[in-house]
Amino acid sequence: MTRLLDPPTRRSGAPASPASPAERTARRRALLEWIAVHALGIAAALFFTLPFVFVLLTSLMDDAQALSRDLVPHTWEWSNYRRVMDTPGFLTWWRNTLVYAGLGTILTVVSSIPVAYALAKFRFRGRNLSLMLVISMMMLPPQVVVIPMYLFWAKQLDLSGTLWPLIIPMAFGDAFSIFLLRQFLMTIPDEYLDAARVDGCGDLRTLLRVVLPMARPGIAAVALFQFFYAWNDYFGPQIYASENPGAWTLSYGLESFKGAHHTDWNLTMAATVLVMAPVILVFFFAQKAFVEGVTLTGVKG
Amino acid sequence: MSTPTLASKRRRSALRTAAFMSPWLIGFAVFFAYPLLSTVYFSFMRYDGFAPPVWSGTKNWGYVFAHYPYFWPALRNTLWLVVVTVTLRVLFGLGVGLLITRIRTATGVFRTLFYLPYLAPPVAATMAFAFLLNPGTGPVNSILADVGLPAPGWFNDPTWSKPALTLLALWGIGDLMVIFMAALLDVPTEQYEAAELDGASARQRFRYVTLPNIAPIVMFAVVTGVIQAMQYYTQPLIAGKVASGVIQGAGTQFEPGYPDKSTLTLPQLVYNLGFQRFDYGSACVVALVLFALSMAFTALLMRRRGGLIQAGG
């Protein structure tokens, strides 16, 4: 560990009682620093968690109190969540979101793995160019190509009012997933691939039997990111699904929920909690893969 | 198996590459190259989606730059976001990263708490902040009033709407925190030890050891932050919509950038021109401006971080 990370307490772990004045000042400074760091830590923790706390508390207030300036509910109205679930359409949005996120994630992972593998391990002309184009696509906001894409899906294939224009493209590799997987596959030593080849494995067999089992953490990270992307996507459903409430997703429906329950902050916050909760639950089960993914995109490059 | 000749071996390896790359090759052609060229084409056409497109020369370009009332405000907002929000996010991310590397008690709990807001879906997070910061009954203004501080109008006040968005962006600092944390842990211990032997103070150690080591990551955070700022869409849109209290639905016209154009960004203009005004030609002009800006900064990112391409591992 670095000096930066040395626990100040370690210095005070040295011979205890008869300390020289210099040692005592050093210990006092270390203790003060420890207190300052942890006080700041607690302040930061409040900044990051209080918004969640206020949202939760308000989601449990009754209708009248939600309009007041009170911070803590008088009565705990757990039925607010029932009321949100019973809102016409809410369960449909839930189902659509799962289809979009679930199917989209599977398609993305399956179609991105071979591309990432080729970019990481094959030697061919145009590999660097391909990689640069992948990065460019990754940085491209969806709004840049949305007009022709909308005309294509809506006018030529008559698929507006559905989520298919968002799901089908995921069967053709997603730039961000390809890039992230490629970064991960680069870390697998070539010796493993050579060994598989010597044992008579073809490229596909090598990929399936040798590379994939080793790449599991990378694949998990990509799957998580893609799932969250679809869960969070607002622009996509806004363009293709807005005309048909039967095709809305949670992220899109949430805003219309607010519109319909104009002053019911308690119900809106309950709906907000219901949109946030699954993502946070998934995170707790897959924390490691997620953090690894974030680090891969930034640092290991 | 007969011994393959060099030529057939090469052909096989080219076929193999093409097979593995095929999903992306199709995706690149259909979902990137074709629509991009098409966007260029439509930017010179008058097209409303019903009547066939008509050549209009540079009329759309002239309209967007000289007459469309939202273009320059959107660009100015983006500049504001780049200067203020990106800077604050990088500083705050570095600060939180430094803090988390020094916390020795319950580190895992702190790290998780600091990271969670980043995961909140943008629509939900914006909705939460629209509630927290609502001027009438929101908890933040209630508390500010209780301690006797002035209570800003946040998302309802043109001078406070972007600071409110900045607050939301700082809340979701988790991505930068993790990246800075990893970078700080990567700084070689020996350098700190050597600096300490030389009698460097904590501040000097940060200035002469930590900073040079993490400089590439700071650069990465700045450039990706600029790219994100140019593409900022969901949060400002939702904030404006919720604050203006517009009920969403078919045929509803929402005044973009509420309040007073202060939350407009370029991607919102593509939506406004294309899907509210059905002026696909002008929408494509804005799309191309967005494209040029995004690619310029992506090129900077790739040049600065050549390692991204070559070393890769």
From TrEMBL, chain A:
Residues 1-22 are annotated as: Disordered. Gene3D superfamilies: MetI-like. It is a multi-pass membrane protein. Residues 10-22 have a biased composition (Low complexity). Pfam families: BPD_transp_1. GO terms for cellular component: plasma membrane. The chain crosses the membrane at residues 34-57, 98-119, 131-151, 163-185, 206-229, 265-286. It is found in: Cell membrane. This is Carbohydrate ABC transporter permease. It comes from Streptomyces doudnae.
Automatic annotation (TrEMBL), chain B:
One of its GO terms (cellular component) is plasma membrane. It comes from the Bacteria. PROSITE patterns: ABC_TM1. The keyword Transport applies. It is a multi-pass membrane protein. It is found in: Cell membrane. Keywords: Cell membrane, Membrane, Transmembrane, Transmembrane helix, Transport. Residues 75-301 form the ABC transmembrane type-1 domain. The keyword Ribosomal protein does not apply. Its main location: membrane. Pfam families: BPD_transp_1. The chain crosses the membrane at residues 21-44, 79-101, 113-133, 164-185, 206-227, 280-301. Coiled coil: none annotated. Belongs to the binding-protein-dependent transport system permease family. This is Sugar ABC transporter permease. It comes from Streptomyces doudnae.
